[in-house]
Structure formats: structure tokens, C-alpha cells
Amino acid sequence: MRNAKRARRVKHVLLLLVLAGIATIAVGALRPLFGAGEALTYESREARLGDISTHMSFGATISAKHSQTAMAMARTSVSEVYVATGQGVKTGDKLLKLENGSTYVSEIDGTVDEVAVSAGDAVWPGATLVQVCDFDGLQATLKVDEYDIHSISVGQKCTATVVSLGLSFETEIAHINRISSGGSVAYYTVTADIDAPDSVLPGMEATVAIPDGSVEGAVVLDMDALAFDEEGAYVLVRGAAGTYERKPVELGIDDGMAVEIVSGLEAGDTVYFADGAAEAEGGFSFGGIYKALFGETTVIRDRSETGGRSETGGPGDAIGGGETSGWNGRESD
User: Fold this and answer.
1) What is the 3-state secondary structure (H, E, C) of 84-126?
2) Range in 98-102, 176-180, 227-231, 297-301 the model is least confident about
3) 56-63+137-213: CATH number
4) What residue ranges do the domains of the chain occupy?
5) In the Cβ-directed half-sphere of 28, how many Cα atoms lie within 13 Å?
6) Model confidence over 111-139: pLDDT tens digits?
7) Quick one: average pLDDT of 216-223?
8) Which fold is adopted by the domain 38-53+215-332?
9) What is the CATH number of domain 66-133?
10) Taking the complete model, does pTM exceed 0.90, yes or no?
């Protein structure tokens, strides 16, 4: 009988130890759920006077305005060659003569780029004989689709940049071919003449930037301070009670970084925008539950270049609801 009581006592002690261990583990696991809550973090931006310019940018290729490729028209052989590679020629200068009596002359002023045959060589229809190119008359050739072609006109100022060389040339649109190339979307060939050094060659990749709009001395604001809802753009401002309130703004042009404020703000006005979350002491947090179950990813943002100060608002700071959305703008000069 005494042994049975002793066995029950030992069993009770072991059960209490197991329960104490489970409680200790549970407290450690659930502590993050009751430790820290979350509060929105705000950054500020100031409206200011500034200039904004935008442009349309197109991919282009450098090409020669004038070139000539002399090709054989019949099966024969070369009788005489009158020029050499790199030689300058004028319109009408002889290039070569074939055994069938055909004589080829230069159709342009330029430079002999290649002599593909020698005297005595056999040739056949379509064979290349001599190439002549005017390397002083280069142009940037671009394709513009039907959605943008209405914004392009002959004489329009533009900047052509040779990508590999980093060279830019101020020029203007010289010609628009108004007969489109095929496809589901119509494309039109547009050219701009460039006065380029010898290092620029036909076939090089280029870009052409065409001014699209500009404002000077306007009220401008960094675009990350904007928010949008079904009624349009708005910003957050501090109300008399210290809460954040929505203020509608009318937008003008933007360059992808800053936007013109047509109405709603004056230069010097300060606006705010939510930027992530900061931890607040105490309280139960569903964020804590998520972190405890699945872990946490921390994103560090360098604010050293923003010039804005950070403010942290608690759950009592009203921001008027709504979600912020991104904004895509044109490229900047």
C-alpha cells in the first residue's frame, strides 16, 4: 500500500515538471506576440520652385545618307580596277571595267569602302564588286510607332547620342517617311542628320531624345510624396490637431522624379507620406504573430540623400485611409 502511494506521488511530481517545461517553452514562443506593435513611419517633403523638362526617347541606328554598291549583272570577269580601298572619289569617277565591256562609275562623292575583286577574277550576277560610302553624310534613323508619330515634325529639335562612344549631337528631324512598315502596329521611319567625327560609323546603336514639354519656375514636388485614390492625386498635410489629413492636388508634367503641382500646394508647404512601419512598445500585434510563425524580412532604406525627416505616428494619427500607388513618368533630360 505504501509503495503504491509513493509511486503515485512520483508520478504527480513528474507530471508537474513536464507541465512546467511546457509552460516555459510556450511563454518563450508567445512572447513576441505581446511585445511590440506597429506604427506607421512618415517622411516629409517640401514643395519648391523649380524647372521640369521631359522628352521622348527612341532607339536609333547610325546610317549613311548616300552609299553605292556596284554589283555584277552578268557572268563574266574583271578587266580593270581603277580604285583602291580608302580612296576618295567624285561622282562620275571610274571604279572598274568588266570583260563584257561594262564600266562602273561612282554615283556619289565619297570614299571607296571596299574593293571586293581584282583584275582577272570571275564574277557572276549579284556579286559585289565595289562599295562607295559618303562617311561625311551620316544620319540617325529611328522607327516611330503610330501612337507617337503625331508628336514628331520636320525641323523639331532633338539630341542624337551614339551609345558605344557616348557622343551626343544637337540636331533636328530632317525627314519623316509617311509610308509605314508592316505589322499590327504601324511604324514610320524618321531621320535626323548628324555632323559626326570619323569614329562614328554606319550601323552603330544610338538614341534620339526629342523634347516633349517643359515648365520653369513652377511649384514642384518629389513624386514619392504623392498618393492616389479614385478621385485623383492627393498629399498628406498636418492638421490643426496634429493629425495627417488628405489634400487634393492638381498635377502637371513630370520627369519621373518630380512633378509640377498646378494647384493645391505653394512653395514651402510641407507634406508627408507613409514610409514603412516602426515598432511601438507594448500591446498585442498580429504582425508579431506573423513574425513568430514565419520569421521576418527587414528592408533597410538609405534616407541620406532624400533630405526629408522621418516622423513616427501612432495608431491615433489619422491619415484618412486609402492606398498609395506608383507613378511612371517620362524620362528626364
Assistant:
1) CCCCEECCCCEEEEECCCCEEECCCCEEEEEECCCCCCEECCC
2) 297-301
3) 2.40.30.170
4) 38-53+215-332, 56-63+137-213, 66-133
5) 6
6) 999 999 999 999 999 999 999 999 999 99
7) 95
8) 2.40.420
9) 2.40.50.100
10) no
